[in-house]
Structure to design on (375 residues):
C-alpha cells in the first residue's frame, strides 16, 4: 500500500548480515539539456557490501589480489550514469570508497562518504573516472564524469507488508528484500554529464526511488515501474498514480520456492495490491517475458478479491544496457542484467462487481523503468 516506512529505507545490516549482505538505494529520473532540448534518463545508486568486513581501503571482489586471497568484497559504491539512446551506448560509472569513510545518522536517515550524500529529501555527489582507471576490469566501470545535486520528493510509496518485516528479514525468507519508498518521486536540480548540464524538473523527471537489501541479488531479476500514466478516459496524465513491480525469490527453511512478484498500482490515490505480503487479498499473479532481437516484452496479469489488472509493456534494446553487479560472495553473474528507463505500454484496470468485471480505466504508460535477468 502507499505507506511510507523510513525504517525500511534506512541502514539496517546487523550481525551476520553485515558480513554477508548488501543494501542498495536506487534513483532514476529524466533531465533535459536546456541548449539542445535533448532528454536523457539518468540513474544514481548508493550501495554497501559486507560492511562488517570493511577496512581503510575498499576490498574489490573482482581484483586479482583479493580473489587470490579469498577475501569477500567490502565497500561503499556509487553507481551513476545514463541509459542509452539510439546511436549512444549509455554510460555506467562506478566509484568505490572504504567503509571507514561512511558517516550515518538514523533518525532521520542520512548517509555521507566523501562528497556523496544521501538523505530522504536530497542526493548529491560526483564521480570522475579517467580512461586509465576504466581500463582495470575489476572496477567494472566506464570512463567519464557525472555530477548530481537533486532535491527529492517521494510522493507515492509501495509497502510490501509483513514479508519484509524484521522477523522475515532475520530468517532470510527472501534472497533479496524490496521497499519502494518512492515509486513516484519528483526530482529537482541539475546533472552534469561529461561537462554537459541537464536540468531536472519535478513535472518532467518521472522519477523512481527504491531500496533492495539481503544476502544475494534475485535471479531472475525482474523489475518494472512507471510514474508517467495517462488515462484513456480523460486523456490526461494521472496525478498521485504509479505502477511498481518487483520480482522476488521466497525460501522456506532455506529451500527456494516458486518465483513471485510484488505489484502495486496506485490509481489517483487508490491502491491496488497484488502480492503475497498481503495474504488476505488472495492475490494471484502471472507473468512472462519475451526477448526478441530488438526488444524485451513483458506481460503481467494480476487479480485479487476486488480487482484485476493486465499490463503489457516493452522496451527497445537500443535503450537498455547490461548493468554490472557484484554479489556479497564476490561473484558476478555471466548472465547480463538488462535495464532501461524508457519502457512503454498499456494497463487495463478492472473492478470486480458481483461476478463480472467493470473497466475502471485503460492507461498508457511511458518512461518506465525496466530490468530483466533470466535465471
Amino acid at each position: 500500500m502507499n505507506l511510507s516506512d523510513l525504517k525500511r529505507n534506512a541502514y539496517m545490516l546487523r550481525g551476520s548480515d553485515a558480513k554477508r549482505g548488501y543494501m542498495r538505494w536506487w534513483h532514476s529520473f529524466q533531465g533535459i539539456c536546456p541548449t539542445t532540448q535533448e532528454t536523457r534518463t539518468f540513474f544514481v545508486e548508493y550501495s554497501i557490501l559486507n560492511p562488517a568486513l570493511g577496512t581503510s581501503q575498499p576490498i574489490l571482489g573482482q581484483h586479482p589480489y583479493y580473489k587470490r586471497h579469498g577475501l569477500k568484497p567490502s565497500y561503499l559504491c556509487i553507481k551513476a550514469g545514463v541509459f542509452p539512446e539510439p546511436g549512444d551506448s549509455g554510460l555506467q560509472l562506478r566509484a568505490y570508497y572504504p567503509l571507514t569513510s561512511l558517516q550515518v545518522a538514523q533518525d532521520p536517515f542520512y548517509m555521507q562518504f566523501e562528497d556523496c550524500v544521501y538523505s530522504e529529501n536530497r542526493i548529491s555527489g560526483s564521480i570522475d573516472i579517467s580512461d586509465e582507471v576504466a581500463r582495470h576490469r575489476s572496477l567494472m566501470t566506464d570512463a567519464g564524469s557525472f555530477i548530481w545535486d537533486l532535491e527529492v520528493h517521494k510522493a507515492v510509496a509501495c509497502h510490501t507488508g509483513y514479508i519484509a518485516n524484521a522477523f522475515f528479514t532475520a530468517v532470510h525468507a527472501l534472497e533479496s528484500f524490496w521497499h519502494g519508498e518512492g515509486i513516484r518521486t519528483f526530482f529537482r536540480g541539475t546533472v552534469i554529464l561529461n561537462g554537459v548540464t541537464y536540468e531536472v524538473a519535478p513535472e518532467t523527471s518521472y522519477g523512481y526511488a527504491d531500496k533492495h537489501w539481503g544476502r544475494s541479488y534475485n535471479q531472475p531479476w525482474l523489475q518494472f515501474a512507471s510514474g508517467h500514466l495517462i488515462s484513456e478516459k480523460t486523456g490526461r496524465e494521472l496525478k498521485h498514480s504509479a505502477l511498481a513491480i518487483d520480482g522476488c525469490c521466497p525460501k522456506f527453511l532455506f529451500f527456494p520456492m516458486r518465483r513471485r512478484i510484488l505489484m502495486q498500482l496506485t490509481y489517483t490515490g487508490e491502491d491496488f495490491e497484488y502480492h503475497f505480503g498481503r495474504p488476505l487479498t488472495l492475490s494471484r499473479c502471472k507473468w512472462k517475458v519475451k526477448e526478441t532481437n530488438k526488444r524485451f516484452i513483458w506481460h503481467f496479469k494480476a487479480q485479487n478479491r476486488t480487482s484485476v489488472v493486465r499490463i503489457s509493456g516493452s522496451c527497445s534494446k537500443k535503450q537498455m544496457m547490461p548493468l554490472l553487479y557484484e554479489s556479497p560472495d564476490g561473484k558476478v553473474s555471466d548472465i547480463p542484467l538488462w535495464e532501461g528507463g524508457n519502457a512503454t505500454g498499456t494497463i487495463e484496470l478492472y473492478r470486480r462487481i458481483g461476478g463480472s468485471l467493470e473497466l475502471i480505466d485503460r492507461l498508457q504508460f511511458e518512461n518506465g523503468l525496466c530490468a530483466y535477468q533470466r535465471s
Summary: The first strand starts at residue 22 and ends at 32. The chain has one domain: 15-373. The chain has four helices and 25 strands. Residues 15-373 form one domain.
